[in-house]
Every structure is written in structure tokens, then in C-alpha cells.
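Technical appendix A lists one of the benchmark inputs used to test multi-chain prediction within the project. The record comprises two sequence entries:
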Amino acid sequence: MNAFKGFVKKEFKQIYRDKRTLLVLFGMPVIMMILFGFAIRNEIQSAEVAVLDLSKDSMTAELIQKIESNPSFDITHYLQAYNEVEPLFQKGNVKAVLIFENNFEQKMVRHSSAKIQMVTDATDPNLARLLQAYTSSIVQDFSDDLNPEISIEQAGLSPEIRMMYNPELRSVNLFVPGLIAVILMLISALMTSISITREKEMGNMEILLVSPLKPYQIIIGKVLPYLVLSLVNVFTILLLAIFVFEVPFEGSFILFFAESILFILTALSLGVFISAVANNQQTAMMVSLAGLLLPTVLLSGFIFPISSMPQVLQWISHIIPAKWFLEIVRSIMLKGGGISVLWFQTAILVVITLLFMGLSMKRFNVRLQ
Amino acid sequence: MNNVVEISEVSKSYEDVKALKEISFEVEKGELFGLIGPDGAGKTTLFRILTTLLVPDSGEAKVLGMDVVENYREIRPILGYMPGRFSLYQDLSVEENIRFFASVFGTTLEENYDLVKPIYQQLEPFKNRLAGALSGGMKQKLALSCALIHKPELLILDEPTTGVDAVSRKEFWEMLHLLKHQGITILASTPYMDEADQCDRVALMQNGKILKISTPDEVAQSFSSTLYGIRSKHRFQLIQVLREYQYVKSVQPFGESVHYADHRNDPDTDDILRYLSTHGVEDAEIKKIDSNIEDTFMELMQQEESHA
């Protein structure tokens, strides 16, 4: 047991001594969090919008004011005629133009229906779609307030959209779970695989193998420091998310940390497996980056929704641990999901972890070669 | 049981390269045994089999009567192994390295301090220096201390003096003698012939085969012909001309002189000098000399190559 303790102590010392790596390990989550939180956003913030009010009655005025007061919109131009719309788009000054038909209020009262046309600059399709969604939800609100009875009796079908769990469609809420997954993969899998292959490459493994240390002690000793580091990082990200970005946390912290530890173990087992297969640090790094990190970023649903991927990639996404972890964390944080709804995803992670732990124990050679 | 190491008919191949070809030898208890041969002779492979890190393709290897394949768990703790490459942790200090290896082998520096003291004492002034910042000789001393820290019964050193300056090499061998007197069996490899004299017995290795096993003196004396040392200022020309001589058997440059042997039982030195001067080497001096290990080794290697 003393041998094992000595080994773990040595691991911590080596990590602690490599100040540059340490800085990256602790700095990266913070930097990534700030980047994703502030710079890279999907939601709209004061998008420039023009208004062409052909009616100019009290109802359109009220509606325009309502839109103006929404932080997502910034009404920069008030147009007088339809032919002004096109040149404005050409100059790229506005992202959308709202056009109220004439006699708006009159039509609303008489037919309880009036038309608003929305023209959007679809060179940025995401933005255009979001602007549409925002506007229709504002208009919906307005017409609900206007006359509840009317709106119920309204003829024709108009969808009533309600964004649950993330009503403002804040991207931070979505990125935080993904970010946790990416960082855990990076630290747990990449760092362990590099650290184990380094022992091989430098020839230290020869002595370690000849020592009374058992293979599982070497593996656990290698893995333990990174488990601790990863947990610290999960904690940092969570604190930043909750206190700086005000991401809601609906579920149980204990479940969240338990699932995080499970995912860290998954990543660690992958890292150990890679190091059992790779013979030098460079291979280990390439395999970890290409085989683990890229899929975690691209195929887990972190940035691109899985449902809009081609069928083949959707199948592949099922074997990516981060996909399941993302579902778990999003559910815990945003929906307050408990283990009763998350047992399936948890079970998959457990299976993947056990599989790779078993494989790497088997592959871990008690000899060279 | 007097043999610490017993190897019989051990062979090992890597893909299509035969690294070891049916090697057999024994190392007695308390012996300082040297394995001498050029790079690629199979020394490291042999050591890795003995340290249970590789499994032989055929044959049997035993350490203290235990089989290296079946009883590897029992063998490992009683071995002290110093691999060819410096394999200590460069980012840990001298003291941290030795304490780490002590703890991994279930002991402490204090417990076995007496054993490593003669070596470790020289390192103690630098005990807070990172191992990566040590000189070559210092690194090897540290590696030796680390291999010794658990009081092994057999010390296996793979080219411990490669890349080390002449003074440190000498010191290193002095330490091995000290350890030998404490009863530790030592098996060391080296590519340097001049280190053979430091060993009780040596095995000359070449291309995965052992050419000869004996005491250094016997090896040196087993040279098959009379050996002459020939000196001249025109060394290059001397070698060229000698190789064309009708009775020539071997010509080897050796330090400042050239070692020469020929096919006659009792060579005529005057005839050699005459031959040399007619071919432009006029200042040659010739005298009979004793053969050394390198002469024998060169001879054995040549025989081996002509057989193959």
C-alpha cells in the first residue's frame, strides 16, 4: 500500500511541477466558459429592425412600443413607403423590417384579424429564424392581452409557441453542459493517455513494471490525480455558470456531481485504453484529439443538434459518451431531472466505462511489447 | 544452488530479426559478470528476458532458480534493474527520485542507507536538483542508487557507463566492486572493451550469439597467433600496405600503433620491415606484444563472420 501511496504522491508532484500545463488545465475552463458565455452567442441582442407602419393607429403604436421595449430588438428606422425596404436591406443596415397593413386597428376590431408582414435578411438564416420566432411570440402575447375571448374564438389555426426550460433561448444554458463534457474529455482522457505513454516513452515503465507495483495500482495511481483535477474544473465551471452567467440549476447537486464523476471515469477509462494501445505521446495525443475530442465537440449535440444530422452520424452519436452525458446534465440543470428519468443514459455510461476499463486492464501488459 | 542466473538455449526474435540465438550461460553468486558486445548484439534483449520484461521464444532462463516466465512476480522484487536509457523522472529532484523508488519497492531511504551510501553520498550535495539537470555520470549514479535501494540480490545494469566520461566510468566500476564485496551479484553490459578487465568473467556477444565466456585474462590470452605492434608516423599508409602483405592474417588499428598477426607460426619481423620500407613505410618499428580482449574479440568476430 505504501508503494501505491508513493506512486500517487509522485504523480501529484509531477503535475504540480509542470506549471505551464497546470495553468492550461485550470485556465482553459475559465477561458472557454467566458468565450462561450460572452462572445459566442446564438440569441439575439438588440437586432436592428425597421418599421413600416401603413396604418399609424393606436393599436400599431402600442405594438411597436412593445417591440421597441424588448431588449432583443432595436428599432433604428421608421419607413414611410414600401419601396424604401429593399435599399435598406441592400445597405445591410437592418436585419428585419416589420410592415403593418393599413387600417390595422379597424380590421382587428371588425374581423379580429389583421396582418403583419415580416421581411428578414436571410443571409444569416439563424438570425432570421430567431427574429421571426421572437416577433411572433411578442405579437402572440399582444393579441392575447388584447382580447382573450377573441383570441380563443379566433378562426383558423395559429400555433401557440412556448419555450419550456429555456424560455429566452439562452445559448449559455446549452453550452455549459457541453463545455463540461469537452473539458472533462480533454483533461481526463487526453492528459491521462499522455501521462501514461510518457512513462513508456521515457523508459520509466520498464522500472515500474519490474517493481512490486501491480498494474491496477499503476493505472489507478495515474488516474487519481486527474480525477481530482477534473472535479475541481467541474466545480469552477458550475460556479461560473451559476453566478456569472445565471444559468438555472433546477436539479440535485449530488446527482450532478455523481454523474460528473461517472463521466470522468468514462473519460479516464478511454484515456487509459488509448495509452494501452499507443506507444508514444504523440500517437496518444493524436488519437485522443481526433478520436475523442472532435466527436465530443461535433457529434454529441454540443454545438450541432443530433436530430439534424444525417442518419449515419446519428447512429455514431449513440456511441459517443458525451452525448449521453450532455442529455443527463441538460436535464439535471434545466429540467430538474432525477435519476428516475436519467437511468438509461447513466446505465449506458456505466457500460461504456466498464467496457473500456476491462479492455485496458486486459491490454495492459505486465511485460514490454 | 550457486548460480544466480541460469540461461539455457534462449532464443528471441523480433519479427524477422533474430536478436538472440540459443544463448546459454550461468552467472555465479557474488560474481561481477560482464556482457560485452557492440550495439545490436542482443545484450538489452537478454537483460529484458532476465528482468522478466520479455518472454523468450524458446529456451529457459532462471533467476535464483525461478523461471522468468512462470515466476516473474517472485523474481521482480529481488532484482535491481537499471535500463539502458536514463529512466528516472527528470522533473523530480534527486532526493524525490530515490525516495520514490524506495517507496515503490516497499522500503525507505533510511532503511537501506548503508548500502547506497557510498554512491548516494556523492549525490547528496545536489539532492534538491532536478534529475534532468544532472550530468551524465551523476544520472547514472542516481540510477544505480535507485536500482539498489531495495537491496536486490541481483543487479542488472544495461550499459551503465555509456555516455559517461572516463573519470566517472572509472568511479562507477569502483562502486560496482564495492557492491560485489557486499555479496550482490552483478550482471552488467558494456560496449567498451576496456571495461572487461573490471569483471570477474565476461561473455563476448555478437549478432545474438555468445562468442566466448571466460575470465578477462583468459579471453585476452586466447588470441590464436603471435601478435605484433607496429608503429609508424604514416599510420594510414601502414595499414593499407600491411593488408596487402602475403602472410597477413589481421590488421587492426589500436591507439597509436597497429596490431598485426600473420599466418606463419614464427613470423620473420625483418622481412615485414623490409616489405614495409619497399612499399614506402620506412620508419616502422615492430615489437611483439601481448594480446588484449579487443584483439581476441576482433578475431572471434571475423571468424564468426566468415562462418556465416
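The two ends of chain B are 37 Å apart (CA to CA). The longest helix of chain B spans residues 166-181. Comparable benchmark entries are summarised in Table A2.
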